[in-house]
Inverse folding.
């Protein structure tokens, strides 16, 4: 059987002419000898390269981070802040005694990686009041402070040097001329709002870099 197939191939190759329809017959006959069940060049399955948690890999939409969720507040405690701002400054390692009953390393020294978070002092620059609605919290009003530092104002501009630096100039005049509108907004927050949050910014200049 195999000898007859080889003889058939030789006859087809000998009768080959450019542009002749026999070229397709030669290709079909040669492809029949290939085994479709042969394994690929990989001996084992490969794992993924990188975590799926970092997808999609693209540029960040904003340079500074944004708090998208807040911890659950305990209303029984006095008024307090539920979170604070921090920046990842680096990583190092520590040697500590492990307190984990059942582990082989229980009451032994282990080396663990730790993250260093820089937490500059914060300044409150505004207050936002939220009212409860069937669709969730909705902001009622916002009250800003009279004196705002240049560090905060720079964050509202894409290019600080080319701007006119007039942010909050009219709002500051309300405090100096007549504080009644500001006090009225604060009274609205006290009367109607169920949740009150503060707007803060960090004082990075006080960090010893």
């Amino acid at each position: 059987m195999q000898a007859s197939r080889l003889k058939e191939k030789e006859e087809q190759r000998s009768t080959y002419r450019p542009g002749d329809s026999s070229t397709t017959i030669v290709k079909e006959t040669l492809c029949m000898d290939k085994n479709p069940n042969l394994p690929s060049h990989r001996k084992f399955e490969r794992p993924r390269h990188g975590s799926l948690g970092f997808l999609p890999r693209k540029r960040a939409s904003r340079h500074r981070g944004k708090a998208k969720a807040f911890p659950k507040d305990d209303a029984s405690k006095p008024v307090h802040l539920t979170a604070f701002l921090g920046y990842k400054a680096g990583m190092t390692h520590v040697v500590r005694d492990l307190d984990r009953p059942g582990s082989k390393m229980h009451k032994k020294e282990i080396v663990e990686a730790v993250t260093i978070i820089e937490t500059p002092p914060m300044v409150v620059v505004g207050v936002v009041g939220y009212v409860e609605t069937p669709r969730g919290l909705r902001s009622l009003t916002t009250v800003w402070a009279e004196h705002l530092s240049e560090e905060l104002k720079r964050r509202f501009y894409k290019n600080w040097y080319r701007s006119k630096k007039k942010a909050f100039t009219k709002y500051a005049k309300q405090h100096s001329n007549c504080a009644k509108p500001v006090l009225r907004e604060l009274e609205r927050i006290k009367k109607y709002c169920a949740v009150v949050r503060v707007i803060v910014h960090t004082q990075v200049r006080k960090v010893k870099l």
The two ends are 84 Å apart (CA to CA). Residues 21-33 have pLDDT under 50 and may be disordered. The chain is about 25% helix and 25% strand. The longest strand covers residues 122-133.
